[in-house]
Write a structure and sequence with these properties.
The protein is mostly helical and 204 residues long. The protein has 2 domains: 68 residues, no CATH class; 134 residues. 69% of the residues lie in helices and 0% in strands. The chain contains 9 helices and no strands. Helix 4 crosses helix 7, helix 5 crosses helix 9 and helix 6 packs antiparallel against helix 7. The longest helix has 28 residues. The model has no long low-confidence stretch (mean pLDDT 89).
């Protein structure tokens, strides 16, 4: 059973890495890839990453050795990005993730007397807080966020990954970096737009 879960984890990560590869290719392409092409490229790159190709382990196993398992939240955000009508996560969600990460990681790494990471081992209060966050996503009209958090909780309850801590299913460093960079980019764009607006409407 453990070997089976290891294989599932490698497949999951290989698909996620392939999605990132498709996203990078799309950035350098002048045209938007059709959905069928995105799926084909994802399956192709994911397949390449999953097989050993003459090495002792699959390529994705070496990636996993560096990154560990991605959180379910980040994994699902990556996968749904392939959908044709996918809307990006709202800035409120990114801002909330950025704030949580900036508060969580320093304390989890030993700053202060509080260890929020311990809350992930079955704390009812923490689970209620996560459910409340999902409710906020629903009130913000982002139903995908509700489903993503719900699936993350179900994966934790089913011990889908090796970790038994709920935090590892909800948050990881890459998700935190993505959210922080998105918030910084949003602030920069607003300042730039404000500066341009002030220049355009400046008297004289």
């Amino acid at each position: 059973m453990n070997q089976f879960m290891q294989i599932i984890a490698l497949i999951e990560l290989s698909i996620s890495c392939a999605v990132v590869g498709v996203w990078i290719l799309q950035k350098f392409s002048p045209n938007t890839f059709p959905f069928a092409i995105k799926v084909f490229l994802t399956l192709l790159m994911g397949n390449i990453l999953f097989w050993p190709l003459g090495m002792n382990l699959p390529l994705v196993a070496y990636v996993r050795g560096l990154t560990g398992d991605l959180s379910i939240v980040l994994t699902l955000l990556l996968w749904i990005s392939l959908l044709p009508a996918n809307k990006p996560a709202p800035i409120v969600f990114k801002f909330a993730v950025a704030i949580i990460a900036l508060c969580f990681y320093p304390f989890a790494l030993g700053l202060g007397m509080v260890d929020p990471y311990a809350w992930g081992y079955g704390s009812i209060a923490f689970l209620v807080a996560v459910l409340f966050f999902a409710l906020v996503c629903g009130l913000a009209n982002w139903t995908k966020g509700v489903w993503i958090i719900a699936i993350a909780i179900l994966a934790w309850a089913a011990h889908w990954h090796e970790s038994a801590n709920l935090w590892d299913y909800l948050l990881d460093p890459f998700l935190a970096i993505w959210a922080i960079c998105a918030c910084i980019g949003m602030i920069h764009r607003r300042k730039r737009d404000k500066a341009r607006s002030g220049y355009l409407f400046r008297p004289g």
